[in-house]
């Protein structure tokens, strides 16, 4: 598989974007603890010459500009069976939506799986496109995010409906 990468500046900091074959296989925040080593990123690509990376960059720009709610770029993951179930569930969280780790655990077999769900969410290799930032703790608390809680809050604020933002005092 032809693996290649680019770096993208964004409102949440530098992003490492990795493509493999015809799909996005990695989107990592700077400082993310599970970023693979540079030897796994493949060659540095020119965006203009790479349709997958060009699409990913364009869609990220649109997302951050508030013009995109759903990503169309193909994304491929390669986790274990449980991780793949969790990541599939993340893909179904709508723009602006939130779900708790416990709710996902209950859907996948029982609330006792909440810690395992948290671990799988934390290892999501395609952040933002597979929206792990939309998973919150009980009662809506911001907890655990590989990109840091400040970034998580920025992403959630970006997706907050205009009516809700207008009603906030701060």
For this structure, what is the CATH homologous superfamily of the largest domain? Answer: Winged helix-like DNA-binding domain superfamily/Winged helix DNA-binding domain
The succession of helices and strands, N to C, reads EEEEHHEHHEHH
CATH class of the largest domain: Mainly Alpha
User: How many domains, in number, for the residues?
Assistant: 2
Give the distance, in angstroms, between the N- and C-terminal Cα atoms. 48 Å
Largest sheet: 4 strands, mixed
- What average pLDDT do the residues reach? 92
Give the helix proportion (percent range): 25-40%
The spatial strand order of the largest sheet comes to 3-2-1-4
Structural class: alpha/beta
What is the name of the CATH architecture of the largest domain? Answer: Orthogonal Bundle
Total number of strands:
6
- Round the Cα radius of gyration to an integer and report it: 16 Å
Proportion of beta-strand residues: 5-15%
Number of helices: 6
Question: What would a concise description of this structure say?
Answer:
This protein has 170 residues and is of the alpha/beta class.
